[in-house]
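FAQ

Q: What does a record look like?
A: Structure on top, sequence underneath. For example:
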């Protein structure tokens, strides 16, 4: 077992390895998965880490444009956003505001958000007005300077940047702006982690802003749809920092024993200085600003093995992983591990597992066994028919394809012990196939956006359709080596990626000027595994949105809806105050507070039975519950039909001794305004 950390380690590393042995030259995929699980941490009674944010707001004359159904100006909507920030922050948090036009102005210096600081912030926000052109670089660099002198102090920091137009003043070259950013950051001292989250709106192509996001932030690049409550979407970086569990994550990878990196296949937004390391085939570095609760971050690695790898790598390691990061107490921690080379194929471990199961079953059935000449056991007497659980299918004879696939995973000791060797191999197949689908989708959207920039929409459309075909090919390959449950998981994930590309097809069939920014926002969300603004993926789809962040969005959307309509800052202020006082009246009873619910596939797809337009997932969130995709520390809600069919989720729930309930449990609890006793809603 590799040392990937212990059960008390805030940051958990799991890695999945996959090799198709017939490929030439010999290659190997290694997928690193990082997660921060607060269930492992003692967070009860602990105050969250204080926040320190600067809002950087464009106040050029174009911000006077009125948009959306409420016909507020952009500057008025930025005032609402800034007020949301001020009212969300706790007394120990700090907030600053910078506006930029021809130059940058500090509207609010870094201020503690106690009662007097909040009052000062709200007064300053009302006085923001439009002026001049768009000096984006001055706004960013001025904001960074406001964090000076903070070395050694422990905050979760952030800059939220909004502009509605191209930079036409100051530094307009992305590479030069990144250099200036790095120079400014060097002056802040050691240990200051400062992600930048960039937001834009409108029908232009904000290339500079997009490159700033790619180089300086671990959140997605955000494009906003003017028919949504995007003031709330701009709070996403703050919600993520509020639930952040680890930060300042530095990952150093080094190949061993003659193995090299296929570095061009390893690009990620988290990669450090990609241009500088492409010539170095044995080392790679990555940096992630932070990881919030309920989020995963993946780093794909592509390894080139020596031609005689079966001899030279036997019982040796192929890669070394060294991770340093800061925990909630600002303590520096590290994880060091080496990834071993394995040569046993999936087919071979399935055969071994099959023989062990058959032997156990035969013993229980009283079938005699004896040793053969090689000391191996074989069976005498009549064959025994063995009935196995459908979810494992472990007695199935391995296919030819499975005989040349090597797949394995390593995790912390708890997760490792929960699965046998076949299940770990299947998990590696699932994860690497999902990552392949994700990377195909990211690369396809990125390339298609390039040709959208050239207004070659027909070629962009061909690229997107090609990406859809490639994901279908990956899905088809998995069918030859994966068990039923694994095929289902990969199939569902592949369908999600195909849906994203399908939405690109819809955009390209009726192209608009805003499509470039929207597609870049889609790509950024998928590449960073970070939630994005509403409307980017069409409808209400928001990949990678953690349940708690989703609840915060719904809460603040209700408050913002109360404020919409007023045109003057004075009226906005009044409604903001009223909304704060009446928040409890806006929010529904949180009868499912601190309870996790897994939903069956049919309940996710269908509506609910209460006559409401809300989905059952939305009902759960509205009443304080947390929909989760996994089967622990939760209950499973499903339909009678799914329970009788014994679907994969039902089997997982039974295996983990998770209660399986009728969906009526939710409706009856909401009607009674209290959570009903689950025992009355269990399936027999």
């Amino acid at each position: 077992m590799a040392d990937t950390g212990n059960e008390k380690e805030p940051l958990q590393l799991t890695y999945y390895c996959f090799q198709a042995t017939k490929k030439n030259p010999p290659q190997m995929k290694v997928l690193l998965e990082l997660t921060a699980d607060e269930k492992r941490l003692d967070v009860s009674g602990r105050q969250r880490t204080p926040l320190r944010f600067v809002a950087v707001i464009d106040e050029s004359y174009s911000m006077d444009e009125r948009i959306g159904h409420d016909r507020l100006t952009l500057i008025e909507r930025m005032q609402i956003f800034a007020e949301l920030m001020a009212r969300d922050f706790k007394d120990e948090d700090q907030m600053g505001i910078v506006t930029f036009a021809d130059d940058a102005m500090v509207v609010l210096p870094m201020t503690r958000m106690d009662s007097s600081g909040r009052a000062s912030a709200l007064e300053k926000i009302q006085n923001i007005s439009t002026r001049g052109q768009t000096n984006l670089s001055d706004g960013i660099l001025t904001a960074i300077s406001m964090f000076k002198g903070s070395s050694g102090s422990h905050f979760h920091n952030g800059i939220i940047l909004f502009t509605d137009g191209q930079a036409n003043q100051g530094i307009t070259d992305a590479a030069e702006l990144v250099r200036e950013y790095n120079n400014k950051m060097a002056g802040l001292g050691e240990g200051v982690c400062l992600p930048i989250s960039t937001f834009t709106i409108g029908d232009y192509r904000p290339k500079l802003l997009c490159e700033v996001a790619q180089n300086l932030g671990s959140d997605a690049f955000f494009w906003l749809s003017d028919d949504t409550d995007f003031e709330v979407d701009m709070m996403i970086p703050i919600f993520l920092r509020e639930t952040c569990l680890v930060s300042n994550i530095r990952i150093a990878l080094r190949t061993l024993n003659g193995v090299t990196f296929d570095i061009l296949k390893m690009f990620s937004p988290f990669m450090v200085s990609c241009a500088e390391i492409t010539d170095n085939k044995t080392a790679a570095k990555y940096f992630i600003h932070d990881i919030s609760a309920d989020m995963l971050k993946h780093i794909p690695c592509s390894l080139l093995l020596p031609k005689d790898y079966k001899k030279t790598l036997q019982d040796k390691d192929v890669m070394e992983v060294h991770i340093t990061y800061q925990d909630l107490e600002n303590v520096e921690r590290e994880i060091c591990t080496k990834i071993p080379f394995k040569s046993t194929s999936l087919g071979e471990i399935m055969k071994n597992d099959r023989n062990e199961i058959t032997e156990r079953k035969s013993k229980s059935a009283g079938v005699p066994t004896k040793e053969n000449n090689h000391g191996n056991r074989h069976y005498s007497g009549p064959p025994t028919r063995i009935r196995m659980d459908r979810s494992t299918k472990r007695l199935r004879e391995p296919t030819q394809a499975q005989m040349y696939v090597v797949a394995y995973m390593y995790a912390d000791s708890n997760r490792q012990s929960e699965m046998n060797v076949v299940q770990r191999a299947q998990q590696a197949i699932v994860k690497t196939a999902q990552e392949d689908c994700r990377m195909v989708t990211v690369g396809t959207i990125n390339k298609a956006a390039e040709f959208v920039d050239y207004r070659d929409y027909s070629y962009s459309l061909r690229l997107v359709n090609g990406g859809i075909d490639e994901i279908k090919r990956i899905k088809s390959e998995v069918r030859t080596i994966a068990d039923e449950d694994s095929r289902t998981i990969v199939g569902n994930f592949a369908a999600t990626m195909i849906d994203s590309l399908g939405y690109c097809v819809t955009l390209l069939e009726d192209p608009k000027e805003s499509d470039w920014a929207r597609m870049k926002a889609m790509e950024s969300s998928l590449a960073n595994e970070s939630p994005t603004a509403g409307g980017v993926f069409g409808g209400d789809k928001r990949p990678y949105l953690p349940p708690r962040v989703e609840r915060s969005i719904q809460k603040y959307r209700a408050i913002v809806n109360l404020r919409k309509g007023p045109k003057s800052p004075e009226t906005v202020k009044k409604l903001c105050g009223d909304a704060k006082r009446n928040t409890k009246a806006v929010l529904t009873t949180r009868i499912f507070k601190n309870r996790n619910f897994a939903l069956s596939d049919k309940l996710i797809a269908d509506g609910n039975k209460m006559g409401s337009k809300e989905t059952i997932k939305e009902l759960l969130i509205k009443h304080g519950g947390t929909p989760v995709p996994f089967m622990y520390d939760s209950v499973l809600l499903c339909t009678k039909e799914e329970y009788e069919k014994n679907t994969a989720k039902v089997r997982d729930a039974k295996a983990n001794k998770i209660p399986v309930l009728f969906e009526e449990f939710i409706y009856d609890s909401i009607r009674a305004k209290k959570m009903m006793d689950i025992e009355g809603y269990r399936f027999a």
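Q: Is there anything notable about this one?
A: The CA atoms of residues 70 and 506 lie 27 Å apart.
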